[in-house]
Automatic annotation (TrEMBL):
Keywords: Ribonucleoprotein, Ribosomal protein, RNA-binding, rRNA-binding. Residues 1-10 have a biased composition (Basic residues). This is Large ribosomal subunit protein uL22. GO terms for molecular function: rRNA binding; structural constituent of ribosome. GO terms for biological process: translation. InterPro entries: Ribosomal_uL22, Ribosomal_uL22_bac/chlpt-type, Ribosomal_uL22_bac/org-type, Ribosomal_uL22_CS, Ribosomal_uL22_sf. Belongs to the universal ribosomal protein uL22 family.
């Protein structure tokens, strides 16, 4: 019989991060995991998540995360075809980049032999934008002083899954 070992704090943090990344708040997956203990969650994640989602990221995109989040919020939870249509007709500069990441995530799901997702059943499981490193520039001001300009960058992550039925 396997002795019960308390999970280290770093292990617990990893499991929580995996859950946060894979299932955005309010999804059925997160509710399913809510009643499990931390050890059960880790076992369930090891067993299923490698084959139930596909993700794509775009890093160091030269656009403010605040502006990209406006576009990403429009497609979260939508079916693939609906998300494509929304991005096609959204008049934001960020919609082109988000569309590329979405297409890449969908292709990752359909072309991977282990996942074999069907295009009609793919939906946006989670989508989030993190802040990347800011490019710092100086702007000369009066009397020899200077102001700093931060040109912000973004890391865009889109996770797609397959709806059953």
């Amino acid at each position: 019989m396997e002795a019960k070992r308390r999970l280290r704090k770093s292990d617990r943090k990893d499991i929580h991060n995996d859950l946060r990344d894979v299932h955005h708040p309010g999804s059925a997956g997160l509710k399913r995991y809510a009643r499990m203990s931390l050890r059960q969650k880790s076992e369930a994640l090891k067993a299923e998540t490698a084959h139930t989602y596909a993700l794509a990221t775009a890093r160091h995109v030269r656009m403010s995360p605040q502006k990209v989040r406006l576009v990403v919020d429009l497609i979260r939870g939508k079916k693939l075809e609906e998300a494509r249509a929304i991005l096609k007709y959204t008049p934001h500069r960020a919609s082109e980049i988000v569309a590329k990441v979405l297409e890449s995530a969908a292709a990752n799901g359909m072309n991977d032999d282990r996942k074999n997702m069907i295009e009609d059943q793919i939906f946006v499981k989670a989508a989030y934008v993190d802040e990347g490193p800011a490019i710092k520039r100086m702007l000369p001001r009066a009397r020899g002083s200077a102001n700093m300009i931060k040109k912000r960058t973004s890391h865009i992550t889109i996770i797609v899954g397959e709806k059953n039925g």
